[in-house]
Amino acid sequence: MYLRRFAISPGRISQSLSAARKSTAGLLASQSALLQDRKLPRKLIQSRSFCSKFSSVRETRAMEVSIPKAEFMEFEDHLMLKYKGVKLMLNYVWLRDHCRTGDSINHLTGERMVDSVTIDPNIQPVNVTVEEGTLEITWPDGHQSEYGLDWLLSNTYEGKKHVRATLEPFLWDAAALSASPPPSVLYRDYMADDGHLAKVLHTLMKYGFAFVDEAPVTMEATLAVSERISHVRETFFGKHWFVTSDFERHDTGYTTAALPVHMDNTHFNEPSGLIVSQMFEEGDCGGTSLLVDGFHAAERLRQDHPEGFDVLSSVPVPHQFLEPFLHTTGVGPVVELEPGSRRELKMIRYSMYDRAVLDTIPMEEVGRWYAALRNFTKYIRDPSNEYWFQLKPGQILLVYNWRVLHGRSAYEGGQRKLGGYFLPRDDFFSRARILKVI
Ligand SMILES: C[N+](C)(C)CCCC[C@H](N)C(=O)O
Ligand SMILES: O=C(O)CCC(=O)C(=O)O
Ligand SMILES: [Fe+2]
After folding, report:
1. Which of 46, 124, 181, 407 is buried most, with the most CB atoms less than 10 Å from its CB?
2. Alpha-carbon span 342 to 331, nearest angstrom
3. pLDDT tens per residue across span 42-85
4. With a 6 A CB cut-off, is 406 part of the ligand 2 pocket?
5. How many angstroms separate the CA atoms of 191 and 58, rounded?
6. Is the CB of 253 under 6 A from ligand 2?
7. Domain 174-434 maps to which CATH number in 3.90.180.10, 3.90.1150.10, 3.40.50.720, 3.60.130.10?
8. Which CATH architecture has domain 3-162?
9. For the chain, which residues make up each domain, given as ranges?
10. Which residue, 384, 313, 321, is CA-closest to 349?
11. Residue 420 near ligand 2, beta carbon < 6 Å
């Protein structure tokens, strides 16, 4: 990449060489004067500009070596901006496309007003300055763009690597949970006050599950808890569902059998984000609930069996729900990473029962996939990772289905009845964003 121009912005004062480049001598003189004036250390560097427009100019420039608030260099196709110790590489087309001013963004709707594809692919700024925490760029057509430096830091590829996530998940096993149990919130507080709703969302983001206590033992209250977060997601299970041992659906959930930990809705391409449920009637014996942190298990797999982690995160696996008049399929890796990230976990699509025929990999890869599943399952079934509890009527359980797996022990007596709702993941995250939880 060719160096095009170079400029420094010590605090308020910025240097765009574009104005001064007409005369290298003038530039040097003005920069020296500036630097001497401000009694800042300086040194001279030489740089060759290869920019076609200025290719004949060989420029010698003054450079400040004290740590300025922001400094930038203009290259052939991008701007390098150093801010708060982070080097941001900003492609010019990207910059023009992401102009933050009112004629590039509709500030009423947040929508892009720039037609991204009509930007000159070779666009270069005619002037660049940094003033009071804002990067300002003038483009050849006279358009003036502005970008807050902090906005750039938290909205760019390089910047985001350095900005701490507002909320790191707390990956738990049973011991970690009993050492720092998630706080629970009372139904009346949760319903009355957004601060308490935010607390539950925070717990959900951190632990992957949360409780709302002392709720009326009604479906209405369970719905009300759900709708504080988002509209519910109606699926073929209905707008709401009850799980009893009546075999109403062709699913082991609707029997008295034990359910090994699983994710619900693996058979949809987008499984529901939240399961909100309440125990309406306990069985005579058994039917204890179980949660396992799927992200924790995945991180252990990544650490101990990196090759297994790579296999499970890359092989797409089909899942299905089958009834005489219903056949849904959902395909995805067992361990799904956020797009564009090799690090951040997105979803654990894990269900021994609902996994369909593995027809997505050639025979040579099958053995490796099963080995990886065995290793992952070792952590998922490790009793030290299991959180067992008896869900009581009046207690509403919210589970982040993309992360925390759930199950139950077998039970006796036909009375046990669990009911609840599914919520979409996007809307759950939206509420968390709006309440500044993430
Ligand atoms: C009872 N409830 C509706 C919550 C789910 C029951 C079915 C669970 C199923 N294996 C699935 O993943 O969809
Ligand atoms: O009965 C329970 O406690 C859980 C049921 C369940 O997870 C299911 O049906 O998918
Ligand atoms: Fe389930």
Report:
1. 124
2. 20
3. 222 222 222 333 333 333 344 444 434 899 999 999 999 999 99
4. yes
5. 68
6. yes
7. 3.60.130.10
8. 2-Layer Sandwich (3.30)
9. 3-162, 174-434
10. 313
11. no
